[in-house]
Specification:
With 210 residues, the protein is α+β, with helices and mostly antiparallel strands. The protein is 42% helix and 16% strand. The chain is built from nine helices and six strands. Strands 1-2-3-4 form a four-stranded antiparallel beta sheet, with helices on one face. A two-stranded antiparallel sheet has the order 5-6. A hairpin with a 2-residue loop joins strand 1 and strand 2.
């Protein structure tokens, strides 16, 4: 999935979260504007690839992150589908801001949680990890997450369309127990001094609770 350029402004929440998670595990996303020289940034299942130009040289960069297993994606789909706001935003082609927290409660890390989670490779001769080229791609990747947050999920192995297919059916909306009685209004019928709707209320409550 080819990443689009990041937006010029805005809250940049997904790039900020990504930078914070990497900082916590000892990998840094350089601050500032989008990195120069990065081309062909592509986010696919389990790997981000790009090419970085430096003077007359071009270096190939690959940053790998393990995909979620099918069982993990099933858990993710259940967690996201059970949350009304998250589900509604998915259907509206948005990614809820608390998606990371929802997955965390399901025992899943959306972003890398430790240094060993990332495998970073660059074709340059510099042995540093991350080298300047890897850092530039991390900067571009963070910007791409702001432009299209679904790239975060794509890196873990699912596109939005694939995720939608795994969402469990929405829970049926349960009407209040007395909704049918409200349609009756207050009929002029009394049973032992009580209005008919009051007498029937407990029966409707028991019936709708089956």
């Amino acid at each position: 999935m080819t990443a689009r350029p990041g937006p010029a402004g805005g809250a940049r929440s997904w790039s900020r979260r990504f930078a914070e998670r990497l900082r916590a595990i000892g990998a840094a996303v350089p601050p500032g504007p989008p990195a120069a020289g990065v081309t062909g940034l592509d986010v696919d299942s389990g790997a981000v690839t790009a090419r970085v130009r430096e003077r007359q040289a071009r270096y190939d960069v690959r940053i790998a992150l393990a995909e979620f297993t099918p069982a993990q994606w099933s858990r993710a789909a259940r967690a996201m589908g059970a949350d009304p706001e998250c589900r509604a935003r998915l259907l509206d082609n948005e990614l809820a801001p608390d998606t990371e927290d929802l997955l965390a409660r399901a025992g899943l890390r959306l972003f890398p949680g430790r240094t060993a989670d990332l495998v970073m490779e660059c074709s340059c001769p510099d042995w540093a990890l991350p080298c300047a080229h890897l850092s530039a791609v991390l900067r571009s990747l963070a910007d791409a997450f702001d432009a299209d947050p679904y790239l975060v999920l794509a890196w873990r192995g699912r596109t939005r369309e694939e995720l939608l297919k795994e969402l469990p059916p929405a829970a049926p909306r349960r009407e209040p127990a007395d909704s049918a009685l409200r349609l009756l209004g207050r009929p002029g019928i009394s049973v032992r001094g009580r209005n008919l709707t009051e007498v029937l209320g407990p029966a409707y409550e028991a019936f709708t609770g089956w």
